[in-house]
């Protein structure tokens, strides 16, 4: 069955005074209907930019999507007209952002902000939306919905504001939700509440979910398949269980080894990933991870990042990974 | 211990970085050049011009632009171009010296208010609000009447009115900087309040203040022109653009250019400072860096 | 005071008053940021202080260093009560008490070079000058893994992880015996966090420095701490040795916290039960009566809403403030 979303060789470049920044440098991923995938990587790897590229929400003056296709239900979004994109945003694909305070308009009540989406996409009049807004607020677990819909964002805590964002995101029953670091700004107990809520809702409505995060634990708990990003490229992808058990790329292996785990005996010393992410203006030749990699061979500098199969359905762009045999140990 | 590699960017100080960015802004450079040219003209006009600013030639009054007098002569036969450059001295002096007074009063008041905080801060700011609410021209006129007619008192009058803006600005800057961790770190080391204000707070608040002062200059220039126009600014025969406009008004139908040229001069200088100020603001904004 | 104790905090409280009004400054509300906290840290030991945002852990750190004036309680450093010292008397003591901040961007003056930043404690405390000053700077730079030629660079020329190293070098300059580490790795990328944690570990071992390690990240705290204290809304809920806390968490809040931390292993996660707390964290201006946690506690019962449980030892140095355990009865 064809995937709901297929991103094919997407490339987005920033044109700055210092030079060209290849924020996203040829990535491909897909999401099936009802599936939850994770786009995992650290700051600057390009995961947020790739999501914004899908919805074409980037400022045209400095950024350009230079290549690729984004097929949503068979239609290439990168070629769609502005009018068609506006229908897609919020209607078919909605996005949840990291900072609820800046993503909610501080001078509008939250009821108004939710009804705004309904008015735009479902052609409802303001009066008709009231019942639906209350229903949505109840769905996301905000108590006393009739009263609270007249409150402003600053009356809510961070966790509640994220619930409002989720309500806005699901209001038009989108087929796909993109959640960009939705819980980075909230505490771990609130994070658990929000992610459980999101999981419940996506299951009930059979919505696909792209979870963008740097948190290895969240990915393990909620994602079925994962794409690991580094320096604007995807370095590894596959079913979550396989990637965690048999990491096919030294970056993934390094990350997994460097994080202290609650369920394992305590190590006396952590094994960090040495070095730092590359300067986006001066990327290293060949494999972007190679300057930090302990397993590098001369071939790495000429690597074009082609994928090799590690296990079934699990691919890595490392030239050393072949048929599940890697020089680094499984975690 | 493993040594970590550094970034591959070329090495700049923060001021150096700002200067490079400023250089790229053409309008700002244009503004700077205009100011420089007017300034040099104002300084060297006695050497360049064959006329003095007070030299009357009653045989050649109210003449239009000609080779001998590129901008014409006024009602007393004085050369307009020469007088314009002498007037530029006044405008530039007022613009700059008044700002010196603004900085000398506004910066410490704002900084002190922010550092002390609490009730004192509250009271000082309400006083600032009261002063700010008065129309500034009226206050300046009042101060002129009290302080007297010399040009130095003019600097003082304008400065005493315009400092409130900078005080507010410096207070705002210091207040937000006070919260920063590097200030807390300094306190944790045992730094005194004076040290923190001088070495941490003030240097970091300079950016917006420099910009504000640059934008204040055209306002001071205009204030001087306005005062001279209504007769309580610079007294004749010393030319100032304001009193030149006033003199021009008397013969407006015979020689309209006598009003127009000084007015244009005011406009150009004000615009030049504004462009420069815009450029400085963009160059000094840390967020726009790269 | 025991000969090995370096920090002892007794009943520390810090209330912030919210006022309004121009001249009269009417008090409208009081935020009970820290409401009676007691603990002790030994020489060379790390006490992890965990809790979520708003629980008061950062305020505890600042009160310890006298960056806030505590509203009540005592803070003993090597036997001296810091709260009773004037700022002048406190100054020489500050050499021994240092702090590392969370934000690698805001904790360094953007107009100072690396040398200025690291050397500031040396200048303010008059520890070193001239040749000795420069040598010490280079020594510190190398200690934290930075090359000597970076001494003249500005913060914006360093990456986040490198800036944290600068912050650590600055904290080490005056040879402190105690450092408050306020979320030192939370703002860093995952791949850099382990580097900095190892550095903190190494430095502690080399110089015998005690840490108060404040964090919301339970996995990191478990790695670096010897003992752990759990805080909620300004009070301590549980304090114990590290292994004991993670193996046998007694307080329902600790249990919920641990359960909420996702483990980077999909197979393990698929079989884990999650305790999801209901409701939001109450406001510290209007804290609940009795046990502060009772409004969200899945195990709350009769006395929880009326009687405040005491933080009491249930045996072997494992203290908990919960009515489920008889020791907590007042």
Description:
The complex is a heterotrimer of chains A (331), B (290) and C (330). Chain A is an alpha/beta fold. Chain A has a domain at 93-173. In chain A, 31% of the residues lie in helices and 23% in strands. Chain A is built from 11 helices and 12 strands. In chain A, a hairpin with a 2-residue loop joins strand 4 (63-72) and strand 5. Chain A is globular. Chain B starts with 13 loop residues before the first helix and ends in a 6-residue tail after the last helix. With 290 residues, chain B is an all-alpha fold. Chain B has a single domain, classed as MetI-like (MetI-like fold), CATH 1.10.3720.10. Chain B has 10 helices and no strands. In chain B, 72% of the residues lie in helices and 0% in strands. Chain C is of the alpha/beta class and 330 residues long. Chain C has a domain at 249-330. Chain C is 30% helix and 24% strand. Chain C has 10 helices and 12 strands. In chain C, strands 6-7-8-3-9-10-12-11 form an 8-stranded mixed sheet, with helices on both faces. A 4-stranded antiparallel sheet of chain C has the order 2-1-4-5. Chain C starts with a strand and ends in a 10-residue tail after the last strand. The relative contact order of chain C is 0.14. The model of chain C has no long low-confidence stretch (mean pLDDT 91). Chains in contact: A-B, A-C, B-C. At the A-C interface, helix 8, helix 9, helix 10 and helix 11 of A face helix 6, helix 7, helix 8, helix 9 and helix 10 of C.
């Amino acid at each position: 069955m064809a995937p709901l979303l297929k991103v094919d060789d997407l490339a987005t470049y920033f044109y700055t005074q210092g030079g060209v920044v290849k924020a996203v440098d040829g990535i491909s991923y897909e999401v099936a209907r009802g599936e939850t995938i994770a786009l995992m990587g650290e700051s600057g790897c390009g995961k947020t930019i790739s999501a914004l590229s899908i919805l074409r929400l980037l400022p045209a003056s400095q950024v350009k999507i230079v290549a690729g296709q984004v097929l949503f239900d068979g239609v290439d979004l990168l070629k769609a007209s502005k009018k068609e994109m506006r229908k897609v945003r919020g209607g078919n694909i909605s996005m949840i952002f990291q900072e609820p305070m800046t993503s909610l308009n501080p001078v509008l009540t939250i009821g108004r902000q939710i009804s705004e989406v309904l008015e735009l996409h479902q052609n409802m009049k303001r009066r008709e939306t009231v019942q639906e807004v209350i229903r949505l607020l109840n769905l996301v677990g905000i108590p006393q919905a009739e009263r609270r819909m007249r409150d402003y964002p600053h009356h809510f805590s961070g966790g509640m504001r994220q619930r409002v964002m989720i309500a806005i995101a699901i209001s038009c029953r989108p087929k796909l939700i993109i959640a960009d670091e939705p819980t980075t700004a909230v505490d771990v107990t609130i994070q658990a509440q929000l992610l459980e809520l999101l999981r419940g809702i996506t299951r009930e409505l059979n919505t696909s979910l792209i979870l963008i995060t740097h948190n290895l634990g969240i990915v393990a708990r909620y994602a079925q398949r994962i794409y690991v990003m580094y320096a604007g490229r995807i370095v590894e992808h596959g079913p979550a269980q396989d990637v965690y058990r048999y990491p096919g790329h030294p970056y993934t292996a390094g990350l997994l080894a460097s994080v202290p785990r609650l369920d394992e005996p305590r190590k006396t010393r952590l094994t960090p990933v040495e070095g730092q992410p590359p300067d986006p203006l001066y990327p290293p030749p060949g494999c972007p991870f190679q300057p930090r990699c302990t397993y590098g061979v001369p071939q790495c500098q000429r690597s074009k990042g082609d994928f090799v199969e590690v296990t079934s359905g699990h691919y890595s762009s490392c030239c050393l990974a072949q048929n599940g045999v890697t020089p680094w140990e499984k975690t | 211990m493993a040594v970590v590699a550094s970034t591959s960017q070329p090495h700049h100080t923060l001021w150096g970085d700002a200067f490079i960015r400023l250089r790229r802004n053409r309008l700002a450079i244009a503004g700077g050049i205009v100011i420089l040219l007017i300034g040099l003209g104002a300084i060297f006009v006695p050497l360049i011009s064959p006329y003095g600013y007070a030299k009357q030639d009653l045989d050649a009054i109210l003449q239009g632009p000609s080779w001998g007098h590129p901008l014409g002569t006024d009602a007393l036969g004085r050369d307009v171009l020469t007088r314009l450059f002498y007037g530029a001295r006044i405008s530039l002096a007022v613009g700059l010296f008044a700002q010196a007074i603004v900085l000398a009063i506004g910066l410490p008041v704002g900084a002190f208010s922010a550092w002390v905080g609490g009730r004192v801060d509250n009271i000082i700011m309400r006083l600032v609000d009261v002063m700010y609410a008065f129309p500034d021209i009226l206050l300046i006129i009042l101060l002129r009447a009290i302080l007297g007619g010399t040009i130095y008192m003019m600097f003082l009058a304008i400065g005493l009115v315009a400092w409130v803006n900078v005080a507010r600005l410096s207070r705002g800057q210091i207040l937000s900087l006070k919260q920063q961790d590097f200030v807390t770190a300094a306190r944790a080391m045992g730094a005194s309040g004076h040290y923190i204000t001088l070495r941490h707070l003030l240097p970091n608040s300079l950016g917006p203040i420099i910009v504000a002062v640059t934008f204040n200059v055209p306002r001071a220039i205009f204030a001087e022109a306005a005062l001279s126009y209504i007769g309580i600014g610079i007294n004749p025969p010393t030319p100032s653009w304001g009193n030149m406009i006033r003199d021009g008004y008397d013969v407006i139908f015979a020689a309209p250019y006598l009003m127009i040229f000084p007015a244009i001069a005011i406009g150009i200088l004000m615009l030049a400072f504004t462009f420069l100020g815009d450029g400085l603001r963009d160059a000094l904004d840390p967020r726009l860096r790269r | 005071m025991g000969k090995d104790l370096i920090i002892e905090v007794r009943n520390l409280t810090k209330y912030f008053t919210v006022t309004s009004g121009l001249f009269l400054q009417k008090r409208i509300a009081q935020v009970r940021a820290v409401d009676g906290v007691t603990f002790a840290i030994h020489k060379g030991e790390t006490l992890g202080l965990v809790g979520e945002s708003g629980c008061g852990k950062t305020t505890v750190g600042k009160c310890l260093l006298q960056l806030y004036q505590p509203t009540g309680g005592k803070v003993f450093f090597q036997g001296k009560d810091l709260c009773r010292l004037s700022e002048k008397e406190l100054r020489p003591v500050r050499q021994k008490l240092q702090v590392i901040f969370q934000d690698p961007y805001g904790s360094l003056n953007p107009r100072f070079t690396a040398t200025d930043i690291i050397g500031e404690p040396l200048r303010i405390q008059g520890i070193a000058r001239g040749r000795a000053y420069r040598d010490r700077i280079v020594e510190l730079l190398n200690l934290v893994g930075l090359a000597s030629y970076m001494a003249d660079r500005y913060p914006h020329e360093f990456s986040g992880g490198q800036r944290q190293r600068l912050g650590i070098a600055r904290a080490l300059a005056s040879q402190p015996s105690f450092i408050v580490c306020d979320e030192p790795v939370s703002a860093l990328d995952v791949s850099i966090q382990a580097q900095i944690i190892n550095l903190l570990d190494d430095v502690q071992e080399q110089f015998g420095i005690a840490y108060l390690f404040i964090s919301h990240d339970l996995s990191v705290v478990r790695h670096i701490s010897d003992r752990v204290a759990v805080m909620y809304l300004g009070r301590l809920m549980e304090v114990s040795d590290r292994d004991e806390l993670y193996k046998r968490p007694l307080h329902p809040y600790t249990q919920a916290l641990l359960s909420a931390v996702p483990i980077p292993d999909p197979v393990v996660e698929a079989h884990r039960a999650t305790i999801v707390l209901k409701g939001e964290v109450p406001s510290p201006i209007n804290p609940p009566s009795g046990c502060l946690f009772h409004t969200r506690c899945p195990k709350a019962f009769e006395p929880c809403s009326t009687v405040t449980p005491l933080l009491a030892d249930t045996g072997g140095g494992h203290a908990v403030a919960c009515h489920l355990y008889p020791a907590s009865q007042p």
